[in-house]
Amino acid sequence: MNKVVGIDQAIEKVYDGDSMFLGGFLGVGSPLKCIEKLAASGKKELTIISEVSGMPGGGFDMAVLFKNRQVKKIITSHIGTCPELLEEYQAGRLEVELYPMGTWAEKIRAAGAGLGGVLTPTGVGTLVEEGKQKLTISGKEYLLELPLSAEFAFIKGYRGDKSGNIEYRGVAVNCNKVIAAAAKFTVAEVNEIVETGEIDPNQVGTPGIYVNAVVQGYNFDEHVQVFKQRWDATGQLKKE
Fold first, then answer.
1. Residue 192's closest CA among 155, 238, 161?
2. How far apart are CA 222 and CA 130, in angstroms?
3. Domains and CATH numbers, the chain
4. Cα separations (Å) of 94 from 79, 84, 137, 201?
């Protein structure tokens, strides 16, 4: 099955009020073109589930979705790096649900694996435990964290083949692998689309069984340039 589609075709499947995972960590491994298309689409009342809220400096990655007031809720582990998000939150227009990063990832992994939840000692005795079931096992207390899933996942890979097998590059893998398995419909944005079989099976990070659509993002050279421009604009790129 050829899973390659246009980005617009993939975005058309999203409706107002849908929930979605967005891959990436401070912009690295983020599906930038999919986010741009989501912003342009005007989809609203979205629930975003993402590891970290956006790249420092504002105006990049998912920041545009908050600036456009398209997001009603975010489920994440950190919100301090996205001024647009903070503005929406402080204005009372955005609901924020926070989890320790490891707990956040395990909740999603549980959804992808079909588990009923995970037990963790993280958060016991803190505000994190409010409203959650607590169990004592071998004399130690744990919180029961329930699975976390979504209608969509937008992930970012380096290469993808036409069957949906995805190869990642370096730390850009971050949360992309775990969220790919936990959504009803997963869209993989990649720098390069190749024929099925061209990716070494040992380099496949996400098998095609978890991917419903593969879309062309920035090619690798364009991707590098986007980040160079971004870091330069925020004064965080060291110049010779």
1. 161
2. 46
3. 7-117+130-231 (3.40.1080.10)
4. 12, 11, 37, 42
Q: What is the DSSP letter of 147?
A: P
Q: CA 61, CA 226: separation in Å to the nearest integer? A: 11
Question: Could you give the count of Cα atoms lying within 13 Å of 175 in the half-sphere of its Cβ?
Answer: 31
Q: Residue 55: pLDDT above 70?
A: no
CA separation for the pair 176, 51 (Å, rounded): 10
d(CA 233, CA 240): 16
pLDDT in tens, 13-36: 999 999 999 999 888 999 999 999
pLDDT at 54: 67
CA dihedral 49, 166, 188, 223 (to 10 degrees): 100
DSSP bridge pairs for 187: 154, 213
> Phi and psi (nearest 5°) for 212?
-95, -30
d(CA 218, CA 190): 7
Q: Rounded mean pLDDT of 139-166?
A: 98
CA Rg value for the chain: 18
The model's pTM is 0.93
Q: Which helix (H) or strand (E) holds 88?
A: helix 83-90
Classify residue 202 by burial, with Cβ atoms within 10 Å: 0-12, 13-18, 19+: exposed
Mean pLDDT over 195-221 rounds to 97
Cα 103 to Cα 212: distance, rounded to the nearest angstrom: 26
Place of tokens 């989501």: 38
**Conformational region of residue 39, where left means phi above 0, alpha means psi within -120 to 50, and beta covers everything else:** alpha
Cα within 13 Å of Cα(40), Cβ side = 10
